[in-house]
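User: Is it possible to get a 3D structure for a protein together with its bound compound? The compound here is glutamic acid. I've pasted both below.
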Amino acid sequence: MNVETRTKEPGFRESVDLMFNRAVSLMSLPEGLEEKIRVCNATYTVRFGVRLRGAIHTFTGYRSVHSEHMEPVKGGIRYALSVNQNEVEALAALMTYKCALVETPFGGSKGGLCIDPREYTEHELEMITRRFAYELAKRDLIDPSQNVPAPDMGTGEREMAWIADQYRRMNTTDINANACVTGKPIHAGGIQGRVEATGRGVEYALQEFFRHPDDVKMAGLSGGLDGKRVIVQGLGNVGYHAAKFLSEEDGAKITGVVERDGGIYSEQGLNVEAVRAWIVKHGGVKGYPEGTFVEDGAVLLEEECDILVPAAMEGVIHLGNAARIKAPLIIEAANGPITAGADEILREKGTVIIPDLYANAGGVTVSYFEWVKNLSHIRFGRMQRRQEEARHQLVVDELERLSRDSGIGWTISPGFKDRYLKGAGELELVRSGLDDTMRAAYQSMREVWHDREEVRDLRVAAYLVAIGRVAKSYQAKGL
Ligand code: GLU
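Assistant: Yes, that's possible. Here is the predicted structure of the complex:
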């Protein structure tokens, strides 16, 4: 982006505010409520020192609480050098709308720590994380009933396990301590399917979109996901899982992958597992034996494809490149990848955008399931699974007896038997709950998109549904 373009571009928080404003201009909210919903309730900055390598290092972290119309508030903690107050506030606001849209009963929050995690050893990261968690927990900014963090860019299961343990040490008699953070490893109170959840949600969102031929037509596409050319920007946790499921299960072709050090492109489609393994081993895509390597990966965002999946970070589609984006359909797997200015250019071109607050809500949805699991202290499916299997067995036995006794001689195909007899375990239940959530949320957005003439895009539709729900909740409190 050149300097001139950059100065015209609003910051991330202003971008989210502009999108919010576009939606509220179509609503008639009571006087003052619009402002109450839009602003961030509080942002805490914590600065703390950790002794590392013989010297004291001071770190700066944030936890922003955007809306407490429902508690606990929810949202990830990000580790990156680019973290700043403006960014966590924008991300916290997005969490409020996201949770409202997919009906997870939380307010919105987000946290961040200004560090490059790659510069520290595992032990150092543990000390930094524990100290950050301590600072947040003692201010109730980590608490099962008030504020429940989760992973985000630069953090994962490992950091969540440290946070949970730190909270437990500080609250030794809290029986619900495990519910203070989500995205934990299974052995530390996590849930099956949380790691894949955001990418899986992106897949379910696209499956639902392609169930509606009218919507597919709006993007100038036809048919289903099978054979669609997909370019993914960022093969981190979200991008990797989305690309993996879309190619392995839906028949889509991953024609491009953009990473920090460049991009690779192949008309035939790339093998996602192999690319991921290469990145893990070599730290980037450079040198990957298949496809064509381009040093300036961002140009691949402008390549011909059917679906573009920005899955890395905010602001990658901006005033400087929006006009050159050719993809007719963009699904925002990351938070805020399209700036407000770029959004306008793309809308004018007729690009269909499946917005972040819906597209990447799979993570918080499964976080919700994990939180419920922690509070109920029992794994999903533990009570019903065998009973369900026994009842299915009864049906199969009876069918076989009928067929035998009547002399018809039907036999049940073994494939059917295996699938029908298997009761749902936690992973199946999590996926089913996530699929249901993504379908329901899409339908609520779609209704507004198609029923209200002044609503021309899914983003405004999503904001209208979300803000409407937050407003109702504030009004029920007497505000
Ligand atoms: N960091 C994720 C997001 O942006 C997950 C948040 C959560 O699970 O609380 O949605």
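The two ends are 43 Å apart (CA to CA). The first strand starts at residue 42 and ends at 52.
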